[in-house]
Amino acid sequence: METSAQTTSRIVENLATAVLLFDKDLHLVSINSAGESLLSVSHKRVSGMQPNQIWPNSSFFYEAIQRSLYTGTTCVERGVDLNLNNGHQIKVDCMITPVVVNDAAEEILVELVDAHSFVRVMQEVNQETVQAAAKESVQGMAHEIKNPLGGIRGAAQLLERELDNKDLLEYTGIIINECDRLRNFIDRMLTTSTHPVKKDLNIHEVLEYVVSVVHAENSHKVNIKRDYDPSIPDIKADREQIIQVVLNLLRNAVQEIDKDGQITLVTRIQRQVTIRHKLNRHIIVIDIIDDGPGIPPEIESGAFYPLVTGRAEGTGLGLSNAQQLIQSHGGLINYERKDNKTYFSILLPTEQCDE
Q1: Residue 287: its pLDDT value, please?
Q2: Is pTM beyond 0.70 here?
Q3: In the CATH scheme, what is the code of domain 4-115?
Q4: Which one of 38, 83, 320, 334 counts the least CB within 10 Å of its CB?
């Protein structure tokens, strides 16, 4: 039978909230997996450290933990800047609670939450809702267009048969061809299948295949740098759909950079990540980074919605379809602009479930 202590330890370990426990001498006793992930540290490395050693550039935490221990009161702060040892800075909401035994604080419990996580969740919910509504609206519009389109094409064919002046056939031919092109475009909107057929998949094999395709279809050399995590395991996924998504994003990157530009492919494992209301113990993150100008600011918020595009020749279906395909795998595509670079990040759970 599992003891009470074991049950508590298991619950804490599986929390999405970062939890750190310090003793009364302010030495770290334990940190859960979410804490290791948020702070980019390992339990082995920081065990026994004091707050000013774990966060040497964030004096707030040492002072707040010390004050909470001496006063026996809980401290709650939102939007605190936290400088990590890897040089990155994050903003967190924190709660510092003294563990009181016999009227004396014996330990200090520190809970940390990425302050941007709630915003990201709300963005995901909003994007999912708007995208579904937009897709339904577009499909309804497509059906309405398709019916009279068939009539226009049929009338053009009848007119073609009745024309005595063969020079005018060029114009009926244009009408018929343009009707066919528009019909094919509508069919792509109506028949895109997102139901994945999942098999064992090595994500690096897929990335290398897509890179070879991109190199083959470009006359000039495309500078693509790889930064892969070799420890990433195989996952269950639809190979053709993942290829379609990565190829779409990589082609976009190639179109955005100049001939001397660079694209970087990065793969990493992240732990305790919530995607679309589901907490995933481990996910694969594929970053496609380029030094092009990125999505125009005026359409950035709707980049993943159908028919939104920044290119005159674009259809506005590429990113929307890519998002739907990744969502069918329980994942998500994020866009971010930082350090004058464009980041498209594909988040894929390692433990796949049918959507």
Answers
A1: 95
A2: no
A3: 3.30.450.20
A4: 83
